[in-house]
Amino acid sequence: MRIAALAATFVLAACSSPQATTNTTPTKVVSKPAETGPLTEEEFKALHALPSQDKVELHGQTIDLAGTKAYLSLPAGTGPFPAIVVIHEWWGLNDHVEHWADRLASAGWAALAVDLYGGKVATTRDDALAALKAVDDNQAHATISAAIDFLAKDPRIQAKTRAVIGWCFGGGWSLQTALAHPELQGAIIYYGQLETDPAKLAAIKANVLGIFGNKDKGIPPETVDKFEAALKQAGVKAEIHRYDAEHAFANPSNPIYDETSAADAWSHVLAFLGSLPK
């Protein structure tokens, strides 16, 4: 039974630097938190204001990746480059997420935005929830693994430093990716569902950056407290930043976008990426 099918339940979110290895085969993930955390589906949907339809200018390209489409944005100049896998929020791989990949590329990182929805881009809450619940976890892990491998082997990139970033749905998958891929150097989690078991978190070899909103009902401060304490107990190098903001506050296409908090969070993202071993 697919783990993502748990999204309809009322369960609490009980889940989700040594030398990097070159293995890109993910370890088996035993459990994953429900995508809605402690909320019902209706409560979870209410956290997500409908995105604006404003078009943004993009600079990358769509590529084929293990039977899916992905968006690749490269820095200026020639590689090798450090590289990062970008995992979309619950709306899917839309222009907003592709623009984030461009922002990361402008900071010197080859950015590959994966599509875990099989080409679907939601424009309503119901469509987004349906797409989220339809995700096959094994296929999602395979797509992310292919992206990590691509960033190491593509001749334009040849990344020796690799990281992952995600928001909301993608934030939870960013954590799952760090758990499954000890070869990563960094994992950035924007308000994603969390793992709070230190024994499980001990599998993480990457440095972790967590960004959360104190007004987020889906990932409340007490859950973040448990996550932070569990990371420390597990010996994972991590930094956690919290803002007086709602869920999805860093999304410019969101009507509740908090520009001040988002800008400060972005400054921490850039500093974190700059601190990773190259």
Radius of gyration, in Å, reads: 17 Å
Helicity level = 25-40%
Q: Outline, from the CA principal axes?
A: globular
CATH class: Alpha Beta
- SSE sequence, one letter per element: HEEEHEHHEHEHEHEH
- What do the pLDDT scores average to? 86
At the fold tier of CATH, the topology name is Rossmann fold
Distance between the termini: 39 Å
What would CATH call the architecture? 3-Layer(aba) Sandwich
Strand order of the largest sheet: 1-2-4-3-5-6-7-8
Number of helices: 8
List the helices and strands and how they pair.
Layout lengths: L40 H6 L14 E5 L2 E6 L9 E5 L7 H12 L3 E5 L10 H9 L3 H17 L8 E6 L1 H12 L5 E5 L7 H4 L5 E7 L7 H14 L3 E6 L15 H17 L3
Parallel strand pairs: 3-4, 3-5, 5-6, 6-7, 7-8
Antiparallel strand pairs: 1-2, 2-4
Verbal overview:
Strands 1-2-4-3-5-6-7-8 form an 8-stranded mixed beta sheet, with helices on both faces. The radius of gyration is 17 Å and the shape is globular. It is an alpha/beta fold and 278 residues long. The protein contains 8 helices and 8 strands; from the N terminus they run H-E-E-E-H-E-H-H-E-H-E-H-E-H-E-H. The model is unreliable at 1-30 (pLDDT under 50). The chain has a single domain (37-52, 59-275), classed as 3-Layer(aba) Sandwich (Rossmann fold).
What characteristics describe this protein?
disordered N terminus; 8 strands; 8-stranded mixed beta sheet; 278 residues
Summarize the structure.
This protein is α/β, with parallel strands linked by helices. It contains eight helices and eight strands; from the N terminus they run αβββαβααβαβαβαβα. The protein has helices spanning 41-46, 95-106, 125-133, 137-153, 169-180, 198-201, 221-234, 259-275; strands at 61-65, 68-73, 83-87, 110-114, 162-167, 186-190, 207-213, 238-243.
